[in-house]
Design a protein that fits this description.
Elements (H helix, E strand, L loop, with lengths): L1 H25 L5 H67 L10 H35 L6
Length: about 150
């Protein structure tokens, strides 16, 4: 039995050596000057591709940044306008309540405060949904690599 194992080992070694020698002959490297030329050409190609990729990435990053800046300024402006409008309504309602000025329907200060609270809640939910849709649109544009103008 030991005889069979050593015989198989020698046959495997011989076949492996022949296969290795064939592979070495078929895959032998080029001469030194050809190899250096190939390496130089590959390096130049890689450098060019890297430079192109870098400039493309910089341009897209700039576009995305400007798009985000425009969208956020639009949202900030909208929020500011709405908050000023709400402030004016609250101020008006407070002055009406403080001066005991009755409206045409003779509403009390509590009724005015309740109405104003309802209006604010409704406007707040509308503003929240507007902001949410703007942010989702911006995210979608960024995910699709298509900054909107």
């Amino acid at each position: 039995m030991a005889d069979t194992n050593s015989k198989d080992f020698l046959i495997g070694t011989l076949i492996g050596g022949i296969a290795g020698a064939c592979a070495a002959l078929l895959l032998a490297p080029k001469s030194g000057s050809e190899l250096r030329t190939d390496i130089t050409d590959s390096t130049k190609s890689a450098t060019t591709r890297t430079s192109d990729f870098t400039s493309t990435a910089y341009d897209k990053g700039s576009q995305w940044a400007s798009t985000a800046k425009e969208k956020s300024s639009t949202i900030a402006k909208s929020v500011s306008e709405n908050s000023n409008e709400f402030y004016d309504r609250v101020k008006s309602a407070a002055s009406d309540a403080a001066g005991n000025v009755k409206s045409d329907s003779e509403k009390t200060a509590d009724e005015l405060a309740d109405e104003l609270t309802e209006e604010l809640e409704h406007a707040d939910s509308e503003q929240s949904s507007k902001i949410k849709s703007e942010v989702e649109k911006l995210q979608s544009d960024l995910n699709n690599n298509k900054p909107s103008n």
